[in-house]
Design brief:
With about 120 residues, this protein is an all-alpha fold. It is built from 3 helices and no strands. The chain is elongated.
Length: about 120
């Protein structure tokens, strides 16, 4: 059984891992973006492959932490919640997801704007 502080730390960690995964899994962030594979040199292909593997590793850690939280919250481990408590948790999860998405999209838009204006 996890202590409440450990559970909170895991939940905070999943948010940070999700931010990292969204960035690392974005093909526009990988070396050689926009270059056909046949035109990439060996270094670009290798670096691109490494970026894909790194994103998958981050996704694996994210999934593992989510599984730990899910097991802790499995039926029978905690007292049942009433509907209003569940609604609050759902709204909080939606808020966190929207905030994480906004951060990632904001960064991606900034990078796109830099590239579009020849500053990147």
């Amino acid at each position: 059984m996890m202590r409440p502080d450990q559970l909170q730390r895991l939940q905070d960690l999943t948010e940070r891992l999700a931010d990292s995964f969204l960035l690392e899994a974005d093909p526009a962030e990988w070396p050689g973006d926009g270059i056909p594979p046949a035109d990439m040199d060996q270094q670009q292909r290798g670096d691109r492959y490494w970026c894909k593997k790194n994103a998958m590793a981050t996704g694996g850690v994210l999934r593992f932490t989510l599984d730990l939280i899910g097991k802790h919250n499995a039926p029978g481990d905690t007292p049942p919640e009433d509907d209003s408590d569940m609604d609050k948790r759902i709204k909080e999860a939606e808020r966190r997801a929207a905030a994480a998405t906004a951060r990632v999209l904001g960064k991606a838009k900034g990078e796109f704007d830099k590239r579009a204006h020849g500053k990147g």
